[in-house]
Design a protein that fits this description.
This protein is an alpha+beta fold. It has a single domain, classed as Chitinase A, domain 3. It is 35% helix and 22% strand. The two termini are 25 Å apart. The protein has a four-stranded antiparallel β-sheet with strand order 2-1-4-3, sandwiched between helices. A hairpin with a 2-residue loop joins strand 3 and strand 4.
Amino acid sequence: MSYQIAHILFGHLEAEDIVSENSKKQALEKAEESLDRIKNDNVAFEIIASQVSDCPSGALGGLLGQVEKGEMVPEFEEIVFNLEPGEVSNIFESEYGYHIAWRYNDDLLDEAFKS
């Protein structure tokens, strides 16, 4: 099983392998504000990812590409493999910081690649 996944990472000083000056509290506040902008203000996920993500994938709108089970940390997989097509997750935490994930709508991707 694999899905096209994008995510936004909010690193903090306690996170593994992430360079960030944010405290854990600041990272969570930034994540909450970003999720609100996506879900309530209808700002595109890709725009928020490119503006605030601490992951290099932010430059690609958060796109991680095709993700298969066993490739990511368990906390990440537990969330993303339970998302419906087109669904944006709530905030969740892994050893790398806080995340918001988005499972691409498979039908839209299929259409995009047919063109």
